[in-house]
Amino acid sequence: MNVPSRVAVVTGAGSGLGRSVAEHLAAAHHRIGVLDLDGEAAEKVAADIRFNGGSAIGIPVDVSEHDEVRAAFDTVRTELGPVEILVTSAGISGFTPFEKISLDEWNRYLAVNLTGTFLCLQAGLPDMAERGWGRIVTISSAAGQAGALRQGHYSASKGGVIAMTKTVALEYAARGITVNTVPPFTADTPMLQEAQRAKQVPGPEMMARFIPAGRVGTGDEIAAVCAFLCSEAASYLTGQVIAVNGGAVL
Ligand SMILES: NC(=O)c1ccc[n+]([C@@H]2O[C@H](COP(=O)([O-])OP(=O)(O)OC[C@H]3O[C@@H](n4cnc5c(N)ncnc54)[C@H](O)[C@@H]3O)[C@@H](O)[C@H]2O)c1
What we know:
Elements: E1 7-11, H1 16-27, E2 31-36, H2 39-51, E3 55-60, H3 66-79, E4 85-88, H4 103-131, E5 134-139, H5 142-146, H6 152-172, E6 177-182, H7 190-197, H8 204-208, H9 219-229
Parallel strand pairs: 1-2, 1-4, 2-3, 4-5, 5-6
Helix pairs in contact: 1-9, 3-4, 4-6
The structure holds nicotinamide-adenine-dinucleotide.
GO molecular function: 3-oxoacyl-[acyl-carrier-protein] reductase (NADPH) activity
Catalytic activity: a (3R)-hydroxyacyl-[ACP] + NADP(+) = a 3-oxoacyl-[ACP] + NADPH + H(+)
InterPro entries: KR_dom (IPR057326), NAD(P)-bd_dom_sf (IPR036291), Sc_DH/Rdtase_CS (IPR020904), SDR (IPR050259), SDR_fam (IPR002347)
């Protein structure tokens, strides 16, 4: 089958899951806008993709800032073309007992994880609607499905992402645009490794006991499913919560 090269924006692509997703989509011959708060990391990922024969640009952006998001998508359009694929992986995570979550902390989690996803979807959807073809995958979290201890702010933001994803899926289903969410339980990325170093979550062996598959997942395993959701083959799959989690939350 002749698979067209499309323009994909991946947020949080300077690290972890976003980076793996960008690499999978580049391997599928798509041109990648690598967006991240850490501009150097974004450029490094883009440079690695180019080194391997792909097409990518790195763009620094804070997804919680409306003007920065608009400017980043404009740059992608100018340099690579209209956006047809969007994966939102930019996010922050942390642990605070519920009664100790300050309003500033609460607002920051909502701003990055939920408003950031909202702003990116709004920035990406017009190109897709105009072309009658689009794929969106939001990265949410098992915390948004089932709750998580000391993550009242994080789980609320991710629960919001799941609900928003379903709503956008309904609004755009008849326009050739699919919108799904992938809520990881654990993936071995810098975010998880940092939480383990800080002893905020158990180490890999202990964590594996809570996962029916018996181990923590890799970014690659999650990215492969995201790439499928962005493919031509996934055209009738929308509004779904595709939990790539080794059976941890059913
Ligand atoms: N790793 C896990 O176990 C796990 C579990 C559940 C959900 N998730 C979700 O997966 C996504 C990716 O996480 P990861 O594990 O790859 O973490 P990571 O920390 O390795 O990567 C997250 C990336 O997002 C970027 N980022 C943070 N704030 C940003 C902002 N305001 N604007 C733009 N970019 C920003 C960071 O610079 C970083 O490069 C996150 O949304 C996270 O909540 C991860």
